[in-house]
Amino acid sequence: MLDDTDRRIIEVLERDARTSLRGIAEEVGVSLGTVSNRVKKLEENRVIKEYRVILDSEKVGWGLNVVIGLRIQKGRLIEIQEIIARDPRVYGVYDVTGEFDSMIIARASDRNDLDDLSKNLLSIDGVKRSVTHLVLNTVKESPTSFPK
Length: 148
Prior knowledge:
This protein is an alpha+beta fold. The protein has helices at 4-15, 21-28, 32-44, 77-85, 111-123, and strands at residues 64-72, 90-95, 102-108, 127-134. The chain is built from 5 helices and 4 strands.
């Protein structure tokens, strides 16, 4: 279970994963050794899975964000999701409840690229139906660290 110190360390890293251990220690108000040990333990326990750069998708050429709902042939969900996940335009593949079996979050460079992505998804044997939603505006795209 995470304690308050762990949570505060994680909050600092979420704001800027490049913050030095010394900087974290100063901000959280604990020793450098404490931060070093806590971060190492959080990594070992896979609470912190990885550190990554978050890009501005439009500035690097991804002009369109889409959410795609898929109906998939019974018994083939995992197989088809693994195929879809290999497409570099896809950055999220989820099992969901409701009308669809899987939701895909993807980016496309333009309408032609989106057309290609949609046709590729529909051409996968076992995909019965897809509904693509174009994201018009992103209000929030970062998780809340901890449940209330």
